[in-house]
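Can't attach files on this board, so I'm pasting raw text. These are the components:
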Amino acid sequence: MTKTTIPEEEFTYPGSTGCPGCGANLVMRYLLKGLGDRTVLSIPACCWAVMPGYWPSNCLKVPILYTAFEATGAGISGLRAAYDAKGVKDVTVVGFAGDGGTVDIGLQALSGAAERQTDAIYVMYDNEAYMNTGIQRSGATPWGAWTTTTPGGATKNYKHEPKKDIMAIMQAHGIPYAATVSVAHPEDFVKKAQKAKSLKGLRFIHALSPCPPGWRMSPQLTVEVARLAVDTHLFPLYEIDDGRLRITRKGKGTPVKEYLKIQGRFSHLDESQVDSIQKTVDERWAKLLKRESEGA
Amino acid sequence: MRMVMTGNYASAYGAKASRAEVIAAYPITPQTSIVEKLADFVSSGEMNAKYIPVESEHSAMAACIAAETAGARTYTATSSHGLTLMHEVLMWASAARLPIVMTNVSRAMAPPWSVWVDHMDSVAQRDTGWMQFFCESNQEVLDTIIMAYKVCESRGVMLPAMIIEDAFILSHTSEPVDVPDQEIVDSFLPPYNPELKIEPGKAMGFGSLVRPDQYMEFRYKAMQAMRDAHDRFLRVEKEFKQVFGREYGGLLDTYRCDDAEVVLVAAGSTAATAKDVVDAMREKGQPVGLARLRAFRPFPHEEFRALASKVSGMGVLDRSYTFGAAGAFYTEIKASVYSCQKRPVMKNYIAGLGGRDITPKILEKIFEDIQLTAKRGGGDEVEWVDVAGLPRRWR
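---
Top answer:
Structure tokens for the assembled complex are below.
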């Protein structure tokens, strides 16, 4: 039997109430494979606040502290302080929040936790909108996307603003480690989780988390769309380790329209709009390559 | 050891004596000297605690919630806008059954800006499931923190409590305070050891989603806990008296009420002034008394019913106002004594908002007004005291 390239041990039981094809299920699965069973999770309002199942069930093999929507950063600081005060060693404190809970309502507490150098890992699983409440736009929704609060209509009111760059925000805090991960690249994902675990201070992981109902696509496309996000350079995989940027998967440079066309949320975009997105992606990719070569 | 200190330092010494293990706090006037003193205690090594300098009051309470869930005894302090910013997570703390103890230096809400005493901030948290203890002296602040941890952490209670100091009148006024010996506090208050805590290796959910057929039972248990906290508090105070020699009169501290014809109900530092006024009026032969509302939650229903059955008039002084209704103390006390066979004439006095002085002279006039209202058998129910432009003169 061939050896698997990621740890075989599972830390998720069956019973997650996630939708078919949920990317966030895979994010949790690969994350815990990297972090192991000495993990304590703090989860705010988000899909994963309901996915573990109704009380008293828990589909995870690690404990969960549920917190208020905006409180993840404060929650992980409190957990760490308590374990330090009690002399509890060998514990990985993890905040696990969605994009709205991170880049919008939770940004203040996250910034505080980063500035305080809280010894914890913060994972943002990014499905690019408020999906648990039913696909409302967030600060992480990309330009041009349809959501229920950017519904288009006669005024073509789709998302008019670009996605908030949370990796740049976190890098500006001078944290020891930040990385992007994808459910289409489990080996890269698990390696980065393991690396984050080995470090001290606030470590940040940005996981792209495809959402079939929210992205208006078929559930079997989750991994494919995640792979396309990397191959098109729309969601590059990289890490910033002690200030040094390294791209971990270069991707094929597939045209971005291949990524857009399989998602209903972008189906209204015309050719010039797709071209405009392609241009932005190319510019950002060039900038990233430059930063890598400059070591920043 | 006997020392001269402010109410804020009494809070800090109370948290230290109680061996709080995690402190998460954000500065706000006039609470700041509490957290400064605690930072000193931690920095000097006098206090073995982790201090989290959070970026907001919401995060202060959220961090306390997480730390307390992990089994640490926590403390924080806040005031006015800080307390109201915490509102969401105050509900979280009590529903999660976490025995967090917090000082609130009670201060007015803006606008217009005011940093002075007013009970609106505390009263607005009435329904959050926290116990609320109003104090009238710095010694009481320190002692109530120690007692509160013991009450809150009782197996049958497991609810949080806020200790309320009046802004500046207690927070920044120095009085002699006895700081008890640590060994004696340790014998009175054992380490916090909850039945359940979040720890690595134990897969549990704290605050999981429940269905409609599961939710009400959680609330019912919290209701029972708050109800039982009443008697638990009385027992703890009795034990406290045996150990430390001090007590403060239970949940409703009655002063010269036994043979009183009319009484005034007040909370916080005003009650101390009112006790002097009672003494002066008693010397003139006036049978008046003062009932100090020490606990707004749990509410002392039985105490009020017993008192209401004995007097012909009861005035209630609120240092806050519930718009569209009346003072919150008044409406609650009135509702509570409605079931008494013999009920007094009642009247609500709204006074001292935003730090306006409630002088002995004003209190004497309030007592006289209660006497007059009782004699008449009723009158206006709510009167704003000492407000410019109103016909009655109080000064």
